[in-house]
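User: I'm putting together a teaching handout on how multi-component assemblies are represented. Below are the sequence lines for each component of a complex, exactly as they appear in our records. Could you produce the 3D structure of the whole assembly as structure tokens, so the students can see both representations side by side? Please keep the chain order the same as the input.
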Amino acid sequence: MFSIEVESLTKKFGSFTAVNSITFTVKSGEIFGFLGANGAGKTTAMRMLCGLSRPTSGQASVAGFDVYRQAEEIKQRIGYMSQKFSLYADLTVLENIEFYGGIYGLTRGEIKDRGEELIERLDLRGEEEIMVAELPLGWKQKLAFSIAIMHRPSIVFLDEPTGGVDPLTRRQFWELIYEAAATGITIFVTTHYMDEAEYCDRVAIMVDGNIRALDAPEKLKRDMGLATMERVFYSLAREATRGD
Amino acid sequence: MRKMRYILRKEFKQIFRDPAILRLIFIMPAIQLLILPFAADYEIQNVNIGIVDHDRSTYARELVRKIEFSNYFNLTGYSNSQKEAMQWIEDDVVDLFIEIPADFEATLIREDEATLLMAVNATNGTKGNLGAAYANNIIGEFNRHVRSEWVQWPAFNPEPQIEVVHSQWYNVHSNYQRFMVPGILAVLLTMVGGFLSALNIVKEKEIGTIEQLNVSPIRKHQFILGKLIPFWLLGFVVLTIGLAISYFVHGIVPEANIGVLYVFGGVYLFAILGFGLMISNFTDTQQQAMMVAFFFMLIFILMSGLYTPIESMPSWAQIVAWINPVTYIVDATRIVLLKGGTFTDIRFHFLVITLGGLVLNTLAVWSYRKQT
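Assistant: Of course. Below is the structure of the complete assembly, with chains in the same order as your input.
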């Protein structure tokens, strides 16, 4: 059973091809990493799958729904967390939980229960009433992730979720990802931290809008005869002709 | 509908936590309605006048005295050299000067008429022209006064004169505040409705939270209603504050049922909110939105009949003015507050603004994209 099926998906901005006919599938419950240098097209690809950007051509289905015709059905079943901070800084922790729970149609009881659970898990007890603006970045990111999966989506899209976060917090963040994956949520994550690539079940490496490699990290390393994902990434990304 | 409740709750919380918005909503109407009507005044006083008196006769002195003691002029220069007077105009010391020729009194007595020269600095056209008109009036009065001294009543008057007595309806004392306050009130509604809402939406774009909403199952109309309803209600708050200030400070007692104004205000806010939404759809940052809003605000205000009558604009400008939504609310507010107009009197305004509101909002909703 596939969570995401993509075939020849392409996005052009005028004459610039940001994503060039990519094809891949993501299995349910998988942690799927999307790697690439800045400008490689990974965010654009993800935005098409989330329904934020309309593909120029190609096919894609997310959670069994077509990205062209059923964008609204997809939206009910996915979670999304972008590199731009996505919570409201001028609302409190609890108010953010209530708002996002509310717009995904959770009942008052569900919001209360899941909110409690979330606060407990993130160790935010006693901090519910403070403005999100006052939380340290790492906590904000963990909170944003937890809120993004509060409505129990079948897939969660994470766009460079750990950008600018210290290694310890990144570690904790990945523990949250593993916990979520254990409950059956498919994780689709873009990153350019190569140690994070090692945590994924499978990774796709994008170079200049194309997928240049797609497999389990162990297999990629073995096939290319390289010791780390970092080396694998460099040997592929070196060929890139476009940068920032 | 449950979603709507969560959305509205969030919007209201954010508005009431934003000190800038609160200040705008409560302080802006107060400042504008308390200060502007007194300052922005057409009644020109303190026109600086110079006199070049070559005659220095009794009549000349009497004329100068009449001018000096009118309420309109400051006598800032008195000389007997025209050259010096031109220099005054050059240096902006006077707005106009009157030159009394050397044989003024003698000619007046001998030939029953005399000539005066008036030179006006038209850099500030309004001031110069009105100053000249006032001076003409005073001279005319002086003229009648002179004649009445000479002519023995009931002697035959060779030149019958028509004197016009006028009375001003709806603003009996020609009080400029009565004219300005309703207009400023209309502009305030426009700013709150159109521009605060635009800024608010663009702010979500700027901080990036709009992405998060666009991937959520919130529908387009829910997001838009969530943004517009709070500002629609705030518009009524501003209207109420404004009417209270007009009543308590400017003594403007509404001549008609104020409910008509509230209903019209509601329709107008609906239209102008659509306009704000349009601005937000085509801008990405608050700064851009501000610039666009400012551009339109200037046109809206200057071409709305708030300061200058639309009828005296060139015909192309009249077309612009009748497309301008502010024109309708300025006019409607004046009709209701000053003339005691009822629904029937502003039904045309209602019609135009309702249609305009539907068009603007349809365009705005249509151009709002959850997707790029």
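A couple of points students might notice: Residues 61 and 141 of chain B are 15 Å apart (CA to CA). The longest strand of chain B covers residues 47-53.
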